[in-house]
Structure formats: structure tokens, C-alpha cells
């Protein structure tokens, strides 16, 4: 969920920066910071020299293992077709909905897991109590 949220923020901020007319190198730098992921920020900051040497972000993304294939292929297609802003919007919505679905799953299952853990704890307390009780009763009967 955290990774999907970071990718959603990255896509949204990158789209906003490109739409605002910020140069692509600075747009990637700003988007990396806005993603909220120190990992993405570190990786994308390290790619700046490659961009300054003339590599496109799509070429760089294809060499990085840290980005999902969907993100890389969509970004590459958007860059080639000239529809990068709409592609980034779609990526933002996709990763935002994926993160929301995972958070929904966590919100649904976490209370159940806590309930089961509490029930198991109570069961161990009851078993322990009766085990001690019958142990003392057996000792008394001797």
C-alpha cells in the first residue's frame, strides 16, 4: 500500500510539474521529493546526471528494477506519444485505487485478526486455569 501511494504521489506531482512547464529534470526531482518515499527519492536523485547527459526518463526507467513494469511501460508510451500528462493522470488514479484497495483490506482484516488473537489469549487463560485447578485437585486427592 505504501509503495502504491508513493507511486501515485510521484505520478500526480510529475504530471502537475510537467503541466506547469517545469523542465523535465527538475520535474522528476520535485516529484521524487513529493512522493514521500526516501527510497524513490534516492534512486531518482541518482538518475539526474544521466538525464543531464541526454537520456530520457523513459530510457532510465527501463534500466531501473525498482519501478513496476506497468509504470515503466505506461510512462514510456506516454513520452513517445506526447500524451505524458494524461498517462501520468491515469497512473496516479491506478496506483491510488490500488493503494486504497489494499488499505481497505487491512482495515477489514485487522480487527478480525485482533479479535482472533484476543480469543486465543482468553482460551489459553481458561485452559491454564483449569489445568492448575485439576492439578491441585489431583494433588489433594492423593
Q: Unreliable segments (pLDDT under 50, ≥5 consecutive)?
A: none
* Main sheet characteristics: none
* Number of DSSP strand runs: 0
CA radius of gyration is 26 Å
The residue fraction in helices comes out at over 70%
Number of discrete helical segments? 7
Class per helix and strand makeup = mainly alpha
User: How are helices and strands ordered from N to C?
Assistant: HHHHHHH
Report the mean per-residue pLDDT as an integer: 92
Question: Care to give the gist of this entry?
Answer:
The chain has 142 residues and is an all-alpha fold. Helix content is 85%, strand content 0%. It has helices at 2-19, 24-34, 38-46, 48-52, 57-63, 69-81, 84-141.
Architecture overview:
This protein is an all-alpha fold and 142 residues long. The chain has helices at 2-19, 24-34, 38-46, 48-52, 57-63, 69-81, 84-141. It is rod-shaped. The termini are far apart. The mean pLDDT is 92.
